[in-house]
């Protein structure tokens, strides 16, 4: 039976109602107010954590414990009794971690975590019937699933595989000792990532808690060549301020642009039956652009929270500037200027793409692209719109590869031709992404079919024709990452 729709959206929450007066004053649903309040409090807490619980002042046990306690409080504040799902998933997964053998730990952890997440996704669809959940508890579950499976695969790499069979990246991130219960809880439930992520690697997180995170990155740089005699002390303040400014801009765009161009217009009678094709295509692009700021806001703010705590340092750039983008989930400039579908995907939801590569793309023996898209759809949920999006993405990806491999080299002989190629491929990429992503926000089958019929299934047909008649030229580099063994053979 569907849940009864409340009279006012501001009452729609299973979390705390302390901020209900503010929700009514702003006219914003209470669950959204709770989310923003938690993230802002997490930002302030992160500064306190970095200064007063600095590794030089507090032991790793204290830092782990405090990060976990605060994270649990945030989860209960935002989601109320729904947070039980998160705690159950974490406890079950830790049971698998300590009981499963190293050779099977990745399989059992994957099926337990993805299975529980899928059950929760299914319950949301049947209970709420495609409505936008008043308290969407699936977000923390999705982040936890990423971390659980990533850690399980890295433990498998460290304890269940030979070092020479690992790629350099797998070898670097391999975990050779199973985490303690406190380390496991802290990694999955810490206050920095429990609400909005992003996912990260266990070794990086433990190094941050123990105070080795920045030092490890600094050791990778030859400071004498840059004129330094001692290690500098990189501060995250500038990076945090820049990201907060970007967060504020994203919030303003969300409150104006998103509300001015609602996605529901894509299935409006006038849009579907009366508007001409170019009008539909233009409005589709505008609507999907207007849907982005909420993701820019949430992910950039989450990144700033981690940086404020001192986590996320990635080294220095070519100009000698300190970089704090280890955990960044998107690169807005590269997204908006992407000239290929691959470039767009590489800069959108970066940590999720890294997770998919780690647990699926690099490890499956056949059909890596198809299976990666399927896993991504399953991880997002069971709404049919997700599957329309990700399964449409498969032929588009293959078609884009075919076009690029057959034509790009023809436009590299002059700057003018290269500029023309970039402009055309930019427009094609942005429109293609809008076409592919529309079902992701429409969710249900009927509006998705209605939209695609109004667009004459154009991109589906074009992609299939390209795949059929335009061969994909083989890449020079193999898809599978090199193992340490192959690297050693080449070196010798």
How is this structure best described in words?
This protein is mostly helical and 492 residues long. The protein has 23 helices and two strands. It has a domain at 22-211. Strands 1-2 form a two-stranded antiparallel sheet. Helix 2 (30-52) runs parallel beside helix 14 (293-308) and helix 11 (237-260) runs antiparallel to helix 14 (293-308). The chain is globular, with a radius of gyration of 23 Å. The chain crosses the membrane at residues 33-53, 65-88, 108-127, 244-267, 385-403, 423-445, 451-472. It is found in: Endoplasmic reticulum membrane.
List strands and helices in order, with pairings.
Blueprint: H1 20-26, H2 30-52, H3 60-79, H4 83-99, H5 105-128, H6 138-159, H7 168-173, H8 181-189, H9 202-209, H10 213-218, H11 237-260, H12 269-273, H13 277-290, H14 293-308, E1 315-316, E2 322-323, H15 332-336, H16 341-346, H17 350-361, H18 368-380, H19 384-407, H20 415-442, H21 445-454, H22 458-469, H23 484-491
Antiparallel strand pairs: 1-2
Helix pairs in contact: 2-3, 2-14, 3-8, 4-5, 4-6, 5-6, 6-17, 11-14, 13-20, 17-18, 18-19, 19-20, 19-22, 20-21
Pfam families: MBOAT
Membrane topology: Multi-pass membrane protein
Keywords: Acyltransferase, Endoplasmic reticulum, Membrane, Transferase, Transmembrane, Transmembrane helix
Q: Percent of residues in beta strands? A: under 5%
Q: List the total number of helices.
A: 23
Q: First CA to last CA: what distance?
A: 67 Å
Side-by-side strand order of the widest sheet: 1-2
Mean pLDDT: 88
